[in-house]
Amino acid sequence: MNVRNVSKATLLAGVLTVAVVAVSPVAAGPSVKERLDNIERKLDTRGLVDMLNRIDQLQHDLQQLRGDLELQAHTLEDIKRQQREQYMDIDRRLQQLETGQAAMPPAAAGDAPGTGVPPATMPPAAPPPAATAPPAATAPPVATVDPALAQAEYDTALAVLREGRYSDAALAFKQFLNNNPGSNLADNAEYWLGETYYVTRDFDQALATFNALVANYPQSPKVPDARLKLGYIHYETRDWKKARAELDEVVSSYPASTAARLAGDRLARMKKEGH
After folding, report:
1. 228, 263 contact by CB (below 8 A)
2. Do the Cβ atoms of 125 and 108 come closer than 8 Å?
3. Distances (CA, A) of 264 to 163, 247, 248, 254
4. Which residue from 25, 109, 235, 269 has the highest number of Cβ atoms inside 10 Å of its Cβ?
């Protein structure tokens, strides 16, 4: 009887042990798995967020680099244009000097007495040289000074823009346009004024300024760049139709320009994005 009781107790203990062993993993398994899944999801989410943040930062840096390259390219073009204008100004002044010197001998010959002409007949011959003097005097000295003053004012505004002081640069370029409406630098000033608005994302003002440049200076070398920026602005404001129209126009109208290449890049990006 004692043997049976011991056997039953032993058998019962063995069954309970097996049951506990069998049940415990089943109960513990799902909890561990869920914890692991939660940890993996958190790790995956953090990794994706970090990756997206890095991509956004890289895109921002790339856009900034492109803007800097554009600014440097435009600055180089301005330097070349200024050099050409300086050479032309020097040549124009030399021609004025040569013209003035060539006009002097006839006046001197008119004052000199002719062979056998009495001195009393000299006064009537004097007026023609006097009449030719005013044209030389009417060559306005201000015209030779204003371009230099305008150039200095323009250079100052451009220097402020290069420093990244966009609000101050906008005021400087607007002041330049008010002071020098007929300057041959007016189209450049109009473009950089629009650029200050574009960089600060004042798209309404930028659109108005670039459109004014295209309308008022259709032959300006700044027109392709202005139209490119119009396409960029429409892209930023999600007006895909207008963006595509402007960028297509840049590509077709100015195929050999840097603006056309950049417009093509943006069109390819729009196509890839499904716009």
Report:
1. yes
2. no
3. 30, 7, 8, 11
4. 235
Question: Exposure string (b/e) for 222-236, b if CB count within 10 Å is 16 or more?
Answer: bbbbbbbbbbbbbbe
**Dist CA 115 CA 113 (whole Å):** 7
Which pair of structure tokens corresponds to residue 225? Answer: 């760049």
Average pLDDT of span 160-186? 92
Does 227 have pLDDT greater than 50? yes
Quick count: other Cβ atoms within 10 Å of Cβ 37? Answer: 10
Contact 157, 176 (CB under 8 A): yes
3-state secondary structure labels for all residues of 49-114: HHHHHHHHHHHHHHHHHHHHHHHHHHHHHHHHHHHHHHHHHHHHHHHHHHHHHHHHHHHHHHHCCC
Q: Is residue 215 pLDDT above 90, yes or no? A: yes
Instruction: Read off the pLDDT of residues 21-31 as tens digits, 9 standing for 90 and up.
Output: 454 544 445 57
Q: Which has more pLDDT, 97 or 216?
A: 216
Least reliable range by pLDDT among 59-63, 96-100, 126-130, 239-243: 96-100
